[in-house]
Amino acid sequence: MLSKFLRAPAALAAIAFSTLASADYAVDILPPVTPVSREIYDLHFGILWVCVAIFFVVFGAMFWSIFKHRKSVGAKAAQFHENTTIEIIWTIVPFVILIGMAYPATKTVLDMKDASNADISVKVTAYQWKWEYDYQQDGVKFLSHLSTPRDQIEEYGKPGAKKNENYLLEVDQPMVVPVGKKVRLLITSNDVIHGWYVPQLGVNQYGIPGFIKDAWFTIEKAGTYRGQCSQICGKEHGYMPIVVQALEPDKYAAWVKDMKAKMPAEQPAAAAPPPTDAGGSATAGATGASQAGATGAAQKVASAAPATAADGKSTYDKTCMACHSTGAAGAPKLGDKAAWAPRLKQGMAALHAAALKGKGAMPPKGGNTGLPDDAVKAAVDYMAAAAK
Amino acid sequence: MSASTHSHDHGHGHDHGHGQAHEHHGPPAGFTRWMYTTNHKDIGTMYLWFSCFMFFLGGSMAMVIRLELFQPGLQFVDPQLFNSLTTIHGLVMIFGAIMPAFVGFANWLVPLQVGAADMAFPRMNNWSFWLLIPAAILLVGSFLAPGGAIASGWTLYPPLSVQQGMSMDMTIFAIHIMGASSIMGSINIITTILNMRAPGMTLMKMPLFVWTWLITAYLLIAVMPVLAGSVTMLLTDRHFGTSFFNAAGGGDPTMFLHIFWFFGHPEVYIMILPAFGIVSQILPAFARKPLFGYASMVYATASIAILSFIVWGHHMFTVGMPAAGNLFFMYATMLIAVPTGVKIFNWISTMWKGSMTFETPMLFAIGFLCLFTIGGFSGLVLAIVPVDITLHNTYYVVAHFHYVLVSGALFAIIGGVYFWLPKWSGRMYNEGLGKLHFWLSMIGFNVLFFPQHFLGLAGMPRRIPDYALQFSEWNMWSSIGGFIFGLSQFIFLFNVIATVRGGKPAEQKQWEGADSLEWTHLPTPMPYHTFETAPVIK
């Protein structure tokens, strides 16, 4: 018993040693790649150095006093307790320093807010727990999910699989943008508040359900830039990364062409309704779209299976697994016969209805309201089969 | 009973006004003493023990959080439970640990320092303490509700908070009850300070601790109803079909953020102003020199309190307010640095040319001064809108507010306990253990939170149970620091219990430089009832 009690700290210590000894320690803001993020970088360092200077003055005085004015070295206490001149000075001087800081910051704030004259506009919709990118001019629309396999993440009582280099910061379908073009983001959410945050782009903007907020960036250097959802949005908040890939304009054009070629095949009856809320210069929705499409089907774009042949397992993997694999918020686990038995007794129709309308902590359609009803039912059937 | 006691020559023998038959100074024995007590000392003690319990409870949640974050991957808790732990850790520490601790200090010290016999409304005082118990049970007990405790973050932003299970309703009721308790406590404190000061104790003669609490109490009365209103709107959105925060019904989730932070920012100062007061008592006592700039301290405290009402938007720079809104809140926030700087400069000038000794309370006060200043710097960095946008909701923010709330508020509370424990209990704590506690806390704290600045700068979001590999090293250091800091608090607990149960007798004026009424006018150990005859302040 005692040895077991001691083994856990010893194991932690061993892990600690191996991690901390081979460390590369980042202590800085990531390298900026847009004009705005460079301004932020410079602002931060400017302020940091001012703070460091004040730090040395303040701490210098304090520690001088601590070492010189101690009773043990025979210091006698003076009895002064005010000095109007010095009190006025130390009110005015910080004020002047603050004005010096506020001036460049104000300039950057105004820059950041100026999303006008963008070259391309992309509507970004946050879902629990994935992102949707809708290219307003180019008619490309797709979802972007975490692509790190579950077996690298879950290590409950067992070692996980070897983690990828970009563990938790990798997606199945990155957002692709052209280098050197001003990209305007129209950010919103389908369910709760999320935050679209990519540090190197200098963008961190909440997506708020029912409202569209804009932000912009112009990437100067081709490359892949990674970020995460910044606002707690539920269980999988830590698992909705953002990957932005900046390509040279010709490669971007090729990517758009490629994506468009894929879209009609995968989305036979879908049409993205032309966004009227964005105020952007939106052209048509998806190419060759018929008017009959449901918005739900549109959201299946670029995923493996067409919506009409919804496969229960793939829906489960994308939407249901977040809770039903671990039993979060009281969700019955996949394959947990005891938990499913009373539910199965209610009959499949009741289970389908519960999944569609939501039950207890579970939101309608597991929070993914874009799913077609059939896909939800198929996922329920899949889970039910696993529990029989 | 408030003013009448002042005219009596002998306190005992006259009607106490609270219906107790005992003629002597001793309290009744047993549980009913605590259940029915109207004595400010007993109630202060209960507040402090309650706070201590909640501190260890909230701290144990933090330990689980740091254990999960020790390395990437999920090893111990699932993400839902992780989110519940961060949420309840925040609520427990704010409403259960820091705030009740300060009310405990106010109960003990306000009557003693203004020369009053007790608080103005002793029965309400009892009630405001006992309300905390059901509130705490609702809040912490919500872990047992279906679906577990709320996992929306302590800020309760809708629509996520609308999605939560019934634990959200329990939390809302807990907040209502704690709010009622805080408001009653505040009314009591304000009335005591304004009406029950001893003859000659003018406002500008009051110890700074009393001043900071007077201002804090006004802040509480101003903002607790705002919080109650916002969570009530959540409640009706959840159950009664309203759409305050639902765009589909004509509402706006952003409105909740505005209302919440209109409460939330003054709340930040509610948790730090009494700490300023405590430190302003401790530093002069050990420098053996009067507080520098007493009047400017009072004005600075009042300025901070007033400014606290116009800076709430700095929690919301990523919401997408217009540029003018962001700029207004940035300027107002930066302005707070001025009075805060004045306080820091005053404290250092108090130490300057003093004759200092470094007993445990002084160590914690100096620790406060050093680390709160660092928290102030990171606050200034975060005030700058563009920088805030890139750091918002990252570990940089977590580091910042733990520097001001742990090494700020909590260090002041711990320093204050060491400072007044000899007076309260009549017994002296173990100085060696106190110093050990200080140094372990100081080292553990900095190893815990300083690396979080780097994590935030590198872009690690807060409230995530698992993280990308480049964050591994600093997270591990942070966890190691967390375990040191957490474990070292047991030294404190042991020291306090050992002191109360059998410490060496303390002197009336245990600290050479202490000069407020409880040290100069009252014996150690203190009688159960004090200042039944008001002292006359020259």
What would you say this structure looks like, in words?
The complex is a heterodimer of chains A (388) and B (538). By secondary structure, chain A is an alpha+beta fold. Chain A has 3 domains: 35-113, Orthogonal Bundle (Helix Hairpins); 120-154 and 162-298, Cupredoxins -  blue copper proteins (Immunoglobulin-like), CATH 2.60.40.420; 310-386, Orthogonal Bundle (Cytochrome Bc1 Complex, Chain D, domain 2), CATH 1.10.760.10. Chain A is built from 10 helices and 10 strands. In chain A, strands 3-2-1-5-8 form a 5-stranded mixed beta sheet, with no helix packed on it. In chain A, a hairpin with a 5-residue loop joins strand 2 and strand 3 (141-144). By secondary structure, chain B is mostly helical. The longest helix of chain B has 36 residues, at 79-114. The two termini of chain B are 24 Å apart.
Features:
heterodimer, A: 388 residues, alpha+beta, Helix Hairpins, Immunoglobulin-like, Cytochrome Bc1 Complex, Chain D, domain 2, 5-stranded mixed sheet, B: 538 residues, mainly alpha, Cytochrome C Oxidase, Chain A, two-stranded antiparallel sheet, 18 helices, 66% helix, globular
State the gist of this model.
Chain A is 40% helix and 15% strand. Chain A has 388 residues and is an alpha+beta fold. Chain B folds into two domains: 1-11 and 33-261, Cytochrome C Oxidase, Chain A (Up-down Bundle), CATH 1.20.210.10; 272-525, Cytochrome C Oxidase, Chain A, CATH 1.20.210.10.
